[in-house]
């Protein structure tokens, strides 16, 4: 979304903002993006992301989110599903807040019951 290269993503984002006052992102998502941008020393992208975050709602994990993520981790291990801690915390955040998880990586989340996932790259 921040790259503004994909027309579908830009359109979905505009539609979202016409309904909602701002974007919401998990603090875990912020962590994932920051670490990647910092590793690449992408200073312009870091500045753009910081501006985006200042105009977005940041969702900090609660105990309920952490507990749900732990349950998802166990389910992932037992079911042979991807179980990256960051992904599970992000999924648990969406589940606890009853929100849609927007990602280009739907495969990592498709196994989670009750989780609504959208890939905004698709029309």
SSE blueprint:
Layout: H1 7-19, E1 24-26, H2 27-40, H3 43-54, E2 57-59, H4 63-79, H5 85-97, E3 101-102, E4 117-118
Parallel strand pairs: 1-2, 3-4
Helix pairs in contact: 2-3, 4-5
CATH class of the largest domain: Alpha Beta
| Number of separate domains | 2
Oligomer: single chain
Cross-sheet strand order for the largest sheet: 1-2
Task: Give the CATH superfamily of the largest domain.
Answer: 5'-nuclease
* Beta-strand proportion: 5-15%
Helix content: 55-70%
DSSP, total strands: 4
The average pLDDT value, as a whole number, equals: 95
Q: Outline, from the CA principal axes? A: globular
Q: Find the structural class using helix and strand composition.
A: mainly alpha
SSE string: HEHHEHHEE
Using the CA coordinates, give the radius of gyration.
Answer: 15 Å
At CATH's second level, what is the architecture of the largest domain? Answer: 3-Layer(aba) Sandwich
Straight-line N-to-C gap:
14 Å
Largest sheet: 2 strands, parallel
Can you describe what's shown?
- The protein is mainly alpha-helical and about 120 residues long.
- It folds into 2 domains: about 25-60; about 60-123, 5'-nuclease (Rossmann fold, 3-Layer(aba) Sandwich), CATH 3.40.50.1010.
- It is about 55% helix and about 10% strand.
- The protein contains 5 helices and 4 strands, in the order H-E-H-H-E-H-H-E-E.
- The chain has helices spanning about 5-20, 25-40, 45-55, 65-80, 85-95, and strands at about 25, 55-60, 100, 115-120.
- It has a two-stranded parallel sheet with strand order 1-2. It has a two-stranded parallel sheet with strand order 3-4.
- Helix 2 packs antiparallel against helix 3 and helix 4 (about 65-80) crosses helix 5 (about 85-95).
- The longest helix is centred in the middle third of the chain and has 17 residues, at about 65-80.
- The chain is globular and about 40 Å long.
- The two termini are about 15 Å apart.
- The model has no long low-confidence stretch (mean pLDDT about 95).
